[in-house]
Amino acid sequence: MAPPAPPSARPTSGKSERAEIRPRRISPPTSAQSRKIRFDTWISAFNPPPSDLTKLGDPDGDGRSNYEEYALGGDPRFHDAPPAQTVNRTGADIVWSFAVRDDAGIDYTPKRSPDLTQWFEFTAPQIQSVPHPDLADFLLITITATAVATDGKEFVRVEFVIP
Ligand SMILES: [Ca+2]
């Protein structure tokens, strides 16, 4: 399974926001006060620096690009795990929570799959976005949608458009 979302929390408004996804891609909502750490600033702040500073680079060989580590949380110099995420089934719903950096420039699409072959966008999901309780500069995204799996298997992942 492709690592689903993975990705220090800086409170923004403190209110949760709910919205239905209609556009093909979504970006996490941010407040005007939120601090934006753009990729170039983030990657250049490591000391010692990673051996590859490009967005598609994977100098630690963990299978996650530098940009994925920026967006979902990680250290591009070490084979570390992304922030914890949860996927649960609650009644007829699947409830998936993951961290994404609080940066309106990140363009991502959460997807689901019954078989790791075909990937689909969530149908009429409810999305809650709040400041992450443990990670500064990250949002905790919770997607609630009707489960489609009939055999108990369902997979989730986040796809990025790397700018
Ligand atoms: Ca990596």
Q: Reading side by side through the largest sheet, how are the strands ordered?
A: 1-6-7-3-2
The separation of the N and C termini measures: 24 Å
Averaged pLDDT: 80
Unreliable spans are 1-35
Number of strands: 8
Q: What's the CATH superfamily of the domain at 17-34 and 82-161, by name?
A: Immunoglobulins
* Biggest sheet descriptor: 5 strands, antiparallel
- SS strand fraction: 25-35%
Bound molecules: calcium ion
CATH hierarchy: architecture of the domain at 17-34 and 82-161: Sandwich
Helix content bin: under 10%
The CATH C-level class name of the domain at 17-34 and 82-161: Mainly Beta
Number of helices: 2
Structural class designation: mainly beta
Radius of gyration over C-alpha positions, nearest whole angstrom: 16 Å
Structure description:
- The chain contains 2 helices and 8 strands; from the N terminus they run E-H-H-E-E-E-E-E-E-E.
- It is 8% helix and 30% strand.
- A hairpin with a 6-residue loop joins strand 4 and strand 5.
- It is elongated and about 50 Å long.
- The protein has a domain of 98 residues: Immunoglobulins (Immunoglobulin-like).
- The chain has 163 residues and is mostly beta strands.
- The longest helix is centred in the middle third of the chain and has 7 residues.
Write the layout of secondary structure elements.
Blueprint: E1 17-20, H1 39-44, H2 66-72, E2 86-90, E3 93-101, E4 107-113, E5 120-121, E6 126-131, E7 138-146, E8 155-161
Calcium ion is lined by residues 58, 60, 62, 64, 69, 76.
